[in-house]
Amino acid sequence: MKNVEEIKDLAKWCLNCKVKPCSKTGCPMQTNIPEFIDKIKTEEYEEAYKILLDNNIFSHICSLVCPQEDQCEGSCIRGIKQTPTKIGQLEQFINEWAIENKIEYKIEKCEKNGKKVAIVGSGPAGIECAIELLKNGYDVTIFEKDKVAGGILWYGIPDFRLPREIVQNIVKKIENMGAIIKTGVELGKDITIESLKKEFDSIFLAIGATTSTTYSLAEKKLESVYESDVFLKAYNENQFLRDLGKVVVIGGGNVAMDTARVAVRMGAESVKILYRRDEEHMPARKIELKEAIEDGVEFVPLTRVISANVEGGKMVSVNCMKTEIVEGKAVDVKDTQFVVEADTVVFAIGLKPEKALLEKEGIVLNDWGMVQVDENGQTNIENVYAGGDVTESKSTVCRALAAGKRAALGMMRK
Q1: Dist CA 192 CA 18 (whole Å)
Q2: Residue 134 in contact with residue 173, Cβ under 8 Å?
Q3: How does DSSP assign 12-23, residue by residue?
Q4: Which of 189, 289, 307, 342 meets the CB 3.0–4.6 Å disulfide criterion with 248?
Q5: For 231-286, how does the pLDDT look when each residue is reduced to its tens digit (9 = 90+)?
Q6: What are the structural domain ranges in the chain?
Q7: Neighbouring residues of 104: CB distance < 8 A, sequence distance ≥ 6
Q8: Is a pLDDT exceeding 90 seen at residue 395?
């Protein structure tokens, strides 16, 4: 944590401008950023903490994992001609100060209103929806298919980026507010939308995107080819994959960076990220790439993986081709094939919602394979809402939170 004088200097950089684009257009949760920074300037840290958590109890998590450079800081007026205000660092400071000083934030609840809501999925969208409903007197039951609540916060983001206790504290908060959490319950197997409609007034689907985008590398399926979500979950459950050898990660997003860093920690001999675009066109945050390289990961841009070479039933290398960026697209460069040694390959090129499951449940998807929702987060089925990765690709934690809040507000308007 930075010292107080450094933080005060960072806070002074905020102009407290009237239009507040950092809050209104930059932050999906529309946190009142200039207001909490003003409290830092006057050393009213507890007030700053209250402002942050009144709007978003995931504030600490957002300060650690959100792409501030694309959201709040990316909209900062000072950033037009100078460097933007370091909003993420200021938010992290306040949350860490509150922990050090044992400041507890208490959520006020109102009387029960007799309405019951089922939330399927306990990631950021699901938990945020639960919080808003619980604050307003709803009874909430959360159904989670895995053993531990938290969704992507628990299974998808490594602990070196997001400490487990922070996620646990959020889950405890909603349990203390009265939420019932049922783990090991899966949509389409243990419950259906129809079965839930018999017991609950509304339903919120926050099941995320769980179908990996991959392609075939060899004629037969290879045991040493993994999908990023499986790979990350194995690490987060402390079920380390052994004998990884030389690892190749295909992809250029934040998940690819996490996957590569996890491979290092699971004992890989070497780790390379092969990405078909260059650094300028990659979706990963610059800080994520920097930290991966610091961990010993080699980044190889402008490279497309074509196929795997197999000897004795095991992968030994992958065939690649150099690419170049033409009008924003990665295109192959003729006669540039080369080979990269690889014992293990992990695909980290995107996840999509489980189409067959959703269609079986009667949910309409859009042209991109995402759940189609209206401005209130409602699907084509009355009183069935959805949000998070199941409704938008490349969603961030904060965008998922905003979707959960939007759906809750939509239910309250009924």
Answers
A1: 48
A2: no
A3: HT----SS-HII
A4: 342
A5: 999 999 999 999 999 999 999 999 999 999 999 999 999 999 999 999 999 999 99
A6: 4-100, 116-210+353-412, 212-347
A7: none
A8: no
Count Cα neighbours of 12 within 13 Å in the Cβ-side half-sphere. Answer: 6
Concatenating the DSSP letter of every residue in 231-285 gives HHHHHHTT-PPP---EEEEE--SHHHHHHHHHHHHTT-SEEEEE-SS-GGG--S-
Q: And the tokens for 351? A: 């996840």
> Torsion over CA of 342, 344, 349 and 353, rounded to 10 degrees?
160
Helices 164-176 & 124-135 angle (0-180, nearest 10)? 30
Question: Which pLDDT score is estimated for 202?
Answer: 98
Token readout for 63 is 């300060």
The secondary structure of 35-77, three-state, reads HHHHHHHCCCHHHHHHHHHHHCCCHHHHHHHCCCCCCCHHHCH
Residue 4 has pLDDT above 90, yes or no: no
Domains 4-100 and 212-347 share a fold: no
User: Are 221 and 194 within 8 A, CB to CB?
Assistant: no
Given CATH 3.50.50.60, say whether it is the number of domain 116-210+353-412. Answer: yes
Q: Look up residue 80 and give its DSSP letter.
A: G
Q: How far apart are CA 242 and CA 247, in angstroms?
A: 12
Q: How far apart, in whole angstroms, are the C-alpha atoms of residue 131 and residue 405?
A: 8
In this structure, what are the phi and psi dihedrals at residue 182, rounded to the nearest 5 degrees?
-110, 110
Q: Phi, psi at residue 350, to the nearest 5°? A: 125, 155
DSSP 85: P
Its CATH architecture, for the domain 4-100, is Orthogonal Bundle (1.10)
pLDDT band at 89 (very low <50, low <70, confident <90, very high): very high
**CATH of span 212-347:** 3.50.50.60
Mean pLDDT score of the chain: 96
Report the C-alpha gap between 23 and 15 in whole angstroms.
13
Q: What is the enclosing helix (H) or strand (E) of 355?
A: helix 355-360
Q: Is 0.90 topped by the overall pTM?
A: yes
DSSP reduced 3-state for 343: coil
**C-alpha R_g of the chain:** 22
Q: Report the C-alpha gap between 58 and 64 in whole angstroms.
A: 10
